[in-house]
Design a protein that fits this description.
single chain; about 140 residues; alpha/beta; Nucleotidyltransferase, domain 5; five-stranded mixed beta sheet; two-stranded parallel ribbon; 3 helices; 7 strands
Length: about 140
Amino acid sequence: MASQISGDSDEPISAINIVPFVDIILVVLIIFMVTTPMIMNPSIAVNLPKSGTGDDTAPSELAIAVRADGSLALNGKPSDEASVNAYAKDLAAKKPDVQAIISADKDVPHGRVVGIIDAVKSGGVKKFAITIDKK
């Protein structure tokens, strides 16, 4: 049964034209393909030290990144040690078993990392992990 395209018939059009739907889905697919690499890249570029040993860590609500210039980022937002300490206190009060994850650039001085660990531990967080890149 072929349908007529001209308007001579008084019957309503009962067939669904799926071509526009497929076009929209393909555009959405292209948008996802373009934006996914942007989402997957970390927002803070940190050159982590390399190590042959190390365990995988689970994501945490207390993620601290230290760039090579010494600037801090708490959960992806610029911060300082006092803010890290205050956030650690609030989070430790809500979740006593929370773990801090510290990602420090390999060029950051050891003393800077120790200061951040001290800020986290004085905030009441008992566990912390230092991230690495595996060799």
